[in-house]
Design goal:
mainly alpha, disordered N terminus
Length: 171
């Protein structure tokens, strides 16, 4: 574990500005730091630690299926659960699907609403056909109720607007 931490430190010292990499650049920096480009564990570690730069390198290397479940959930769900807005937004920009759920029914949208991640919720609502009408399940309240109870008025209003537009389009 200490060796992995040293590798991440070396990686961060290579290039500290957060930007998108070409696939070739990302693979080069990962190889130089001895981090396998297809390391799901390294991506999960970067997400939970909030290491935006390493997460971007691993995503930009395009060697990991961002929609694959890893340890029961997706990387997007982990980013929302861990309150890592920048990484969640980057995952969404790179094709992560917010509609995939954990094995017990949790979704990235639920965790983003629960944690008050306004920009992440807004980006997820751009996904065509995203389901915001969840029923009470495993002690989780519906999304609008969750937003309202936690005092996230802006998120509640976004969900309400989305729901009304969705219902109007079905008529």
């Amino acid at each position: 574990m200490k060796k992995l931490a040293i590798l991440f430190t070396v990686l961060l010292s290579i290039n500290t500005c957060a930007h998108a990499y070409t696939q070739k650049e990302a693979l080069y920096f990962l190889q130089r730091s001895n981090i396998p480009a297809n390391s799901q564990g390294a991506l999960l570690n970067a997400i939970t630690r909030g290491d935006v730069e390493t997460a971007k390198l691993l995503i930009d290397a395009k060697q990991i299926d961002l929609n694959q479940r890893y340890l029961g959930s997706t990387f997007l769900i982990q980013a929302a659960y861990s309150k890592q807005d920048d990484i969640a937004l980057y995952l969404l920009e790179n094709g992560a699907n917010p509609q995939i759920k954990t094995v017990d029914g949790g979704s990235a949208l639920f965790f983003a609403v629960k944690n008050g991640q306004t920009k992440v919720v807004e980006k997820m609502l751009e996904t065509p056909g995203i389901n915001i009408k969840r029923h009470r399940m495993f002690f989780r309240l519906p999304l609008k109720t969750t937003a309202k109870r936690n005092g996230y008025t802006e998120i509640y209003n976004m969900l309400d607007k989305y729901q009304k537009e969705y219902e109007a389009s079905k008529k």
